[in-house]
Amino acid sequence: MIGYVTLGTNDFDRAVDFYTKLFAEIGAKKLFGNERMAGFGTAMGSPMVAICKPHDGKAATSGNGTMVAINAGTEENVKKLYAKALELGGSDEGEPGPRGPGFFGGYFRDLDGNKFVAFKMG
Question: What does the pLDDT look like over 92-120, one tens digit per residue?
Fold first, then answer.
């Protein structure tokens, strides 16, 4: 149902580098980009995470209560994404582990403060 999620950034080049390295951990890559926006995923037409310089020219901010969930497919991939995010300068929001029946997740924030969970369901 979700086509893509767009997150604002205040340092576009740094964000492109962060997401290129982060999503490589699960076989995703930069699928499109220009001077103000880049989209990451596994294929055009599949769900993506896009980053952009805000259109209004104001500072990008992270939403309180907003979180992007990345289906990592396996517990190993959850751990890899979480570790890579921290290695790249992201911050911890909850180490990978079980979070109730059938859900395994690791929580982190990117360089602009946007919150993510890498998860495996089932």
Answer: 999 999 998 999 999 999 999 999 999 99
Specify whether the CB–CB gap between 91 and 51 falls below 8 A: no
- CATH number for the domain harbouring residue 105: 3.10.180.10
User: Is residue 5 helix, strand or coil?
Assistant: strand
CA angle at 42 for the pair 48 and 11, rounded to the nearest 5°: 50
**Structural domain harbouring 83:** 4-55+66-121
Rounded Cα gap, residues 30 and 20, in angstroms: 6
HEC string of 53-81 equals: CCCCCCCCCCCCCCEEEEECCCHHHHHHH
